[in-house]
Amino acid sequence: MLTEKPAPSDASGALPQQRQVQCFFQGGFVPLREAKIGVMTHAFMYGTACFEGVRAYWNADQGQLFLLKGLEHYRRLRNSARVLFMDLPRPPEELVDLTVELLRRNDLREDTYIRPSVYKSSEAIGVRLHDLAHDFMIVCLPFGDYIDTTAGISTMTTSWRRNADTAIPARSKITGGYVNSAFAKTDANLNGHDEAIVLTADGHASEGSAENLFMVRDGALVTPPATDDILEGITRAAIMQLARRELGLETVVRSIDRSELYVAEEVFLCGTGAQVSPVTKIDHRPVGDGRIGPVAGRIKDVYFDAVRGRLPAYADWLTPVY
Ligand code: PMP
To answer: Is 271 within the bounds of a domain?
Structure first.
């Protein structure tokens, strides 16, 4: 039981002042304030870690917290770790159970963000991936919206290009690779926009700083392929399923030119953090008529109902915590 209830998160990403929160660290449950790594830790010095961002949604009517797509996240974490010569300490199924246990121990009864990570734990100088120890941890914190999902967001194409698969594979959620996302996000924010659209090295629309991208063009729903340096998003896959089932729309997976976004009827970003976030402006141009379009609007509504456990058809996305 938390003795101090954390303030509702403003999604600033800052840790709430909650001294009793437990995390999973070095093989056991420990108070978050005691979970520390040394400054020589390889992952800190070289960005040699990988991570997941998972959400759990509180349903007040049912008095239930739902972990969203836990297994998919741990399977992706296993793949990210594999790319970096690491592995999970336990199979994905067991890590879902461990996460549920952590949420229970913290008695979390509000929307929550969960951050598991596999990281190079050796305290050593020497940039490499081999011959290093690794460890695993999970932290969780109350979390609201990451970016706006209601009004429509303003975006700009950043001049920072997405990490190429030949440099830091975007398919693997590598901590060091997120410096690229940080460049993009700061570029957009300091220029007065909510989010960045990031292009591949050859100039195709790849994704947002931490979101996948969809557009509606001539009535077709389109998203860039896995080979356009995207993270293979779990929300992206969920949205393709929703579009098919709810709207009868098959998603066309193909490369997207920058200028197609200027003439698309609709554009939206999606991700575990971002959820479904309609884009109403790109590079100072209104998207479509400048308002949230019918496809993004409908997908967003169904998505929020599904993740909060209001739609039995999508119950298999969720693991009840209590
Ligand atoms: N792209 C990037 C770069 C991301 O960081 C994220 C967030 N994890 C996404 C896309 C969306 O992925 P998911 O839907 O699996 O959260």
So the answer is: yes
Residue 313 domain flag:
no
Q: What is the pLDDT of residues 238-287, one digit of tens each?
A: 999 999 999 999 999 999 999 999 999 999 999 999 999 999 999 999 99
How remote is the CA of residue 182 from the centroid of ligand 1, in Å?
Answer: 14
- Residue 296 within a domain: yes
Task: Give the burial class of 189: count Cβ atoms within 10 A of its Cβ; 0-12 exposed, 13-18 middle, 19 or more buried.
Answer: middle
Of 117, 142, 167, which residue sits at a domain end? 142
* pLDDT digit string, tens, across residues 215-237: 999 999 999 999 999 999 999 99
Residue 161 and residue 279 in one domain: yes
234 within ligand 1 shell (Cβ under 6 A): yes
C-alpha 243, offset from chain centre? 20
Q: How many domains does the chain have?
A: 2
Rounded distance from Cα 125 to ligand 1 centre (Å): 30
Whole-model pTM? 0.94
Nearest 5 degrees, angle CA 129-CA 44-CA 89? 60
State yes or no: is 69 an active-site residue. Answer: no
Nearest CA to ligand 1 atom 4: 210
Ligand 1 lined by 18 (C-beta under 6 Å)? no
Nearest to 274 by CA among 188, 191, 212, 205: 212
Q: What is the residue with the minimal CA distance to atom 3 of ligand 1? A: 210
Q: What is the CATH number of the domain that holds 303?
A: 3.20.10.10
Question: Which stretches within the chain are classed as H helix?
Answer: 42-46, 70-83, 92-105, 178-190, 234-247, 258-263, 294-307
Please tell me whether residues 92 and 112 are part of one structural domain.
yes
Question: Closest Cα to atom 10, ligand 1: which residue?
Answer: 211
Does 8 fall in a domain? no
User: Are 194 and 131 within one domain?
Assistant: no
What atom in ligand 1 is closest to the CA of residue 72? 15
> Which position among 69, 120, 173, 300 bears the catalytic label?
173
Domain enclosing residue 259, as ranges? 153-307
Based on the fold, state whether residues 101 and 244 are members of the same structural domain. no
